[in-house]
Amino acid sequence: MLDTDILEKKHAILVAEFDRYVIEHPEFAKKIPKNAQIILQVYGDDEYNNWCIQLANKQREPEQKVVYIKVKGLKPPKSRLIRPEVVLS
Q: What is the pTM for the complete model shown?
């Protein structure tokens, strides 16, 4: 059974990370045709992959190119704080 809340949250995280990756790797972004429908796919996650394809098909414009972006997964989240200090008063 599909839990759309979980799939939507996972998708939001993947889209944000994909956007970050494209900004940090412009050479990768150049491989993607302009105005292409991007479909994110995660190896081994058939439920998410099928949901994502269905979502993309609903949103796709006629004659729009489709690009599949396949990822192995996400690294564990980590803090991006730089040298935090504890200051006691």
A: 0.80
Q: What mean pLDDT is predicted for residues 26-54?
A: 94
Q: Where are the domains of the chain?
A: 4-71
What is the pLDDT averaged over residues 77-89? Answer: 85
Distances (CA, A) of 54 to 39, 58, 80: 10, 6, 34
Helix segments in the chain, DSSP class H = 4-24, 26-29, 46-59
28-65 burial, b at 16+ Cβ within 10 Å, e below that, comes to eeeeeeeeeebbbbbeeeeebbebbeebbeeeeeeeee
Distance in angstroms between the alpha carbons of the first and the last residue of the chain: 53
The span from the CA of 81 to the CA of 89, in Å, is 22
